[in-house]
Amino acid sequence: MRAAGERHPVPDWAVVLLAATLVLSVWQGWLAGAVGVVMALLARARAAVIIACVIAAVAGSCAAQRAWQHAAPRQLGRYVGWVEVVGDPAPFGNGLRVTVEIEGERFDAWLYGAPRRKLLNRQGGDFVWVDGRRGRLTGAVRRAQVRHVVGRFEVTATGDVVEGSALARASNRVRHALRVSAEASMRPDDSALFTGLVIGDDARQPDWLLADFRASGLSHLTAVSGQNVAFLLAAALPLLRRLRPWWRWATTLALIGWFMAMTRFEPSVLRAGVMAMLAATAYVRGQQVRPLRLLAAAVIVLVLLDPLLVWSVGFWLSVGATAGVCAVGPWLEPRLPGPVWLRLPMAVTLGAQAGVAIPSLLVFHRLPIVSLPANLAAVPVAGFVMLYGLPAGLLASWLPAAAMRVVMVPAVVGTRWVSLVAQVAAAVEPSPRVGALLWSISVCVLARWMWRHRQRVPI
């Protein structure tokens, strides 16, 4: 196996630069992508790296144009026939928002009355017979297009509902079992949070809970991330160890793919899943790749496959947090005060906050000052809920009611703790101006302390 420090044919910084060039060209066109080419020239990169940046700038611009062209509906008007439910139906006021796929195009539908009751407990991948009319998007058009939704579908009538493919049925059975276990042993708000922690299912979370998690800087816990994927692979490790290397690799990729399908291919799980797949591929080839290189490679793969991810807030929060953990966290850890058991989680949390600072400020116009203590208090418990909740929830769904509640007790306690931390943190979070002032003071104090104790860090 290659040593961690062994040089690859393309250095890590070049892969990061290539990813940045591609993203810039998708976002703002090939002229913005040319910035990456200029940086490669200034860094006196190899000719292959410079050519790759030029190709990335042109390819990104073309991919973005093609993606936005496909964001408009090809056909409008009446449609009668079968449609596929994409994602799980989500409560929307007194109605139900359902995204359906018709002849390869996605439409948002808002259902009330009998159609709402019929699809309320259905899941992604199911098929339903409908009679309705396709129309153009109104309102938050760009937000819908980023989800690959091209129009609205006004439902006149609904008919039979049938289950989808074998993969969809298997995923939906797991999701249904977890919901049944949670709803039978927890309060409604806690059960919604539990499924969000374990499989990223936040469709049934009340608005106040979402607001508390956002205000406390804990909203990342309800989005499936690399932590969930790592726990899944850790649970499967006893089986994977018994397989030959290439069979282990194939099984690992299949397991990750199934988990991505079960969590509805959310942007955060796409990032985590592709990174895990690349890491598994490198391992089976006898290579050891740094996480930042894996992250950049995953961004390249995903943006080429789906350029609209560049406009996804969830994608950039996930990428930013991971970049901060991989790049800033290891640099901070030896420079922070306190014992090792405290410095490590503090460095990880501060690194993640540094990584999400820009997208958080641009989109939410604030970076919660309470996020550091809230994450230190909630993340370890949330990790336990993620690790314990999936197997316990599946087991509990097969047990009688009394035994189910006993099995789910640790998950209930952990979920309530995470919810309590979010509520308390959201309650004490100051106004954005005060928060900005406190962040400035905290950064200055931390920088001064690190400067005074810089001799602790080995050169």
Overall spatial form: globular
Strand content: 5-15%
CA-to-CA gap between the ends?
27 Å
Total strands: the figure is 5
Q: What is the N-to-C order of secondary-structure elements (H for helix, E for strand)?
A: HHHEEEHEHEHHHHHHHHHHHHH
What's the Cα radius of gyration? 23 Å
Helical/strand content category: alpha+beta
- The tally of domains stands at 3
Helix content: 55-70%
**How many helices in DSSP terms?**
18
* Major sheet details: 5 strands, mixed, barrel
Q: What is the arithmetic mean of pLDDT?
A: 87
Commentary on this structure:
With 459 residues, this protein is of the alpha+beta class. It is 63% helix and 12% strand. It has helices spanning 12-28, 30-42, 47-69, 114-119, 141-146, 166-185, 188-199, 207-215, 226-240, 245-262, 267-284, 291-305, 313-332, 340-364, 371-396, 401-407, 409-428, 432-452, and strands spanning 77-92, 95-102, 105-111, 127-136, 149-162. Strands 1-2-3-5-4 form a five-stranded mixed beta barrel. Helix 15 packs antiparallel against helix 16. The radius of gyration is 23 Å and the shape is globular.
